[in-house]
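Summary for the steering committee. The consortium agreed at its last meeting that each partner would contribute one worked example illustrating the joint modelling workflow. Our contribution is presented below. We chose a case with several input lines so that the handling of multiple components could be demonstrated. No manual editing was applied between input and output; the record is shown as generated.
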Amino acid sequence: MSDWDWPVVGRSWDLLMEGTKLTLQLFAVSLILATLLGLILALMRMSSISPLRFISAGYVWVFRGIPVFVTLLFAFFVARDLPGLSWLTPIQAGMLGLGVDAAAYKAEIIRAGLLSVDPGQHEASEALGMTKRHYMRRIIVPQSIRVIVPTYMSNSILLLKATSVAVGIGLVELTGITRQLSNSTFRPVELFTAAAVIYLVLTTLLVVPQEYLERRFALKT
Amino acid sequence: MDLDLVWEAIPLIWKGASTTASLTAWALVLGTIGALILALMRLSSIKPFRWFAAGFGWLFRGIPLLILLFFAFFALPDLNIGIVDGILLEPFQAAVVALSIWTAAYQAEVIRSGIIAVDPGQAEASEALGMAKARYMRRIIIPQGVRIMIPPYTSNAMTLLKQTSLATLVTVPEMTLLTQRLFSNDFQFRERIAALALLYLAMTTVFVVIQQVTERTFRLKV
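What follows is the complete predicted structure of the assembly.
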């Protein structure tokens, strides 16, 4: 027997959109955090000061080696006890956990991009009398962006999907609200299908900026 | 941080390691079989096969694993379509189903790009030698593609190991759930979660070592 009740999705729509809003907020803030932290880690890894290299390599090893769920548990239960972080709300803890975890991946992506630039470019810049800071900003970084963009964007799609793990620390983002709605309406098939469609739309939409950026930074020959 | 509490927690959490390991192993075996079939369908000359495999990849790589897991656990029992009248899965089974589908979707891409990366001249030469497609895929193309597949395959497998932690949310008693039970009794969050992190880190580091060894084994000997 088949007794669908698709209108339940319509009746739950406002709450689903509330959840989607939180999903997008978690995504946006943790993406910014991960990108900044990832950039710092990548530059530390390539620095000539060995303790900086060591810290950066250790950070990447640890956060790529443990599940994002475990990082979120840390952010939720432990981070507030750390000095200066007592103001952390559960949502901010979620953003922190997701951002700290994703930074390890962003660092590797940025480092790989910077390394992919032909070393001859460094040598030529030095031969022209540019300082390291100057030629990194003007010569190396602009060329590496072309290599970084595709992996950076597909990694960001993974981050969007990883925000769903925040349900494990009690946040009611899209996955969390869907679970609650399905418990209260006894309509899991319809509601989880609706959530899946919303996620598919979001991840498919992220392909648009990816293609735009790839075109923007493509070699003009 | 009280290190005694960390050490004390390790054997207690380790009891869940066998569940974590068997979730990973089941999903890796079932998922790899699925991935191989999907990759061959994607490369097939029959259009519906190609569409099916492409659609499968788009769908299951586009939604979070957790939605898949909740669907398998909460929604499958209510799913009535035609002959299927609700599938009730144990938590462990639901987790294996979701993790296998996830693995199939991601590893299919790895296998497909590994096969594509083999020089097309190899296929042409095999045909010139009168080999059938099934035969040269098995004897010529796949063995060469495997070398390209190993690094991304292993790193997906490592991600899979970490993703098994989500099975906690459908009450599978793996390492993360045991940790949550521990700290919800004694509120020693910091030490218990640190112990859990150490165990995961040890397991994933083993994966990295395996990856390096297999890469060396399959390297071209010239």
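The interface with chain A takes residues 58-59, 61-67, 70-71, 74-75, 78-82, 85, 162-163, 165-166, 168-169, 176, 179-180, 183, 189-190, 193, 196-197, 200-201, 204-205 of chain B (CB under 8 Å). The radius of gyration of chain B is 21 Å.
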